[in-house]
Design brief:
By secondary structure, the chain is an alpha+beta fold. The protein has helices at about 1-30, 55-60, 110-115, 130, 155-160, and strands spanning about 30-35, 50-55, 65-70, 75-85, 90-95, 95-100, 100-105, 125, 145, 165, 170-175, 185. The chain has a single domain (about 30-185), classed as Umud Fragment, subunit A, CATH 2.10.109.10. The protein contains five helices and twelve strands.
Length: about 190
């Protein structure tokens, strides 16, 4: 009888340790999310499931073109691509991204842009100073500027303004569902 009681105690200990590990991982290391909506097409589709790692945020290692999840409202998280980092001057002219007055390629948009009709732009022209809430010349310290990859159908920094780094949940690193799309995000 004592042996059965010891078995139950051991199982309870194992379950408690497993729960603590799961809670620790979800709070500090990584969390699964589901993409909602078309704003990250063609990179991510509605219903894609991702692993979002949190350590990059903890150690302030967000980089240009990272795909991040952030708190857009109290109840809603958005997933977008970081285009501008603190201190960057961001501008779009003639469907070309300029960072600090230098043209920057966006390889993740190359395929969709190649399918556009002639004289059609994928991203409408804008500058931080004239068109973005706050009318700043550069991305403010402690903030990032984000855009959805589906530039014609995305609520992003063009409407929301600059995203505080404190609102970023993590960086999307891996697509794990659907199975045929398992891959690291670029």
């Amino acid at each position: 009888m004592a042996s059965k009681k010891n078995d139950w105690v051991e199982w309870i200990k194992i379950l408690l340790v497993a729960v603590v590990i799961i809670v620790f991982v979800r709070m500090f290391i990584a969390v699964p999310i589901v993409v909602e909506g078309p704003s990250m097409l063609p990179t991510l589709e509605n219903g894609d499931r991702l692993i979002v790692e949190k350590l990059s945020v903890t150690f302030n290692q967000i980089e240009r073109f990272d795909v991040v999840v952030f708190h857009a409202t109290m109840k809603k998280d958005y997933i977008k691509r970081v285009i501008g980092l603190p201190g960057d001057k961001i501008e779009y002219r003639n469907d070309q991204l300029y960072v600090n007055d230098q043209p920057v390629d966006e390889p993740f948009l190359a395929e969709v842009k190649s399918q556009l009709e002639e004289n059609t732009t994928y991203t409408t022209d804008f500058s931080l100073e004239e068109d973005i809430k706050g009318n700043k010349e550069v991305v403010p310290e402690g903030h990032v500027f984000v855009l959805g990859d589906n530039r014609t159908n995305s609520t992003d920094s063009r409407q929301l303004g600059y995203i505080p780094m404190d609102d970023i949940v993590g960086v999307a690193k891996l697509t794990y569902w659907p199975i045929d799309k398992i891959s690291l995000l670029e």
